[in-house]
Amino acid sequence: MFLGQYEHKIDPRGRVAIPARFRDELKAGLVLSQGFERCIIVYPLKTWQEMAEKLAALPMTRSRSRRMSRFIFSPAFSQELDGLGRVLLPAPLRQYAEIKDIVIIVGVNTCIEMWSKEHWDAEKALMDEQGWQIAEGMELRE
To answer: Phi and psi at residue 50, in whole multiples of 5°?
Structure first.
């Protein structure tokens, strides 16, 4: 389970250190892709494969299924952590997420999100303002 948020600098080669507590889950490999809210989403390889199987089961005769597959798979990069626990953030994903020198790494249960500081601050403000409304609309069992 990925929890918490961390702020890290990107090195001149475009690499970022993954928080030590996340590394065990990622040592078998990871996949980076674009997230829905201008962030980079990082999946452990096993979780990515499970998600890929679910997407493959969708009817490809529907345009939404095809577009979702394109959105998820076409910008994806398979990566491994280096010996220092860093991962390369490919330039197209950094541009998409507008990440420059600082990245906010957020644990989101089964995956990790990487945000620019500006986009994360805006997302946090939105969550702070609308969190209770979002919770009321969810079907969570206590």
So the answer is: -65, -45
Report the pLDDT value the prediction gives residue 130, as an integer from 0 to 100: 79
Class of domain 5-136: alpha beta
Compute the distance between CA of residue 112 and CA of residue 116 in angstroms, rounded to an integer: 14
Contact at 8 Å (CB) between 112 and 41?
Answer: yes
Lowest mean pLDDT of 37-46, 105-114, 118-127, 128-137, name the range. Answer: 128-137
Query: Domain-by-domain residue ranges, the chain?
Result: 5-136
pTM score of the predicted model: 0.90
Task: Give me 114's structure tokens.
Answer: 């990487």
Q: Quote the DSSP letter at residue 110.
A: T
For 65, other C-beta atoms within 10 Å of its C-beta total 15
Q: Which residue has tokens 């980076």?
A: 32
Q: Report residue 89 as tokens.
A: 């953030």
How is 36-99 classified by DSSP, letter by letter?
Answer: TTSSEEEEEHHHHHHHHHHHHTS-TTSHHHHHHHHHHHTT-EEE---TTSEEE--HHHHHHHT-
Supply 111's token pair. Answer: 């995956």
Say if residues 48 and 103 touch (Cβ distance below 8 Å): no
Question: For residue 124, what are the contacts with CB-CB under 8 A and spacing of at least 6?
Answer: none
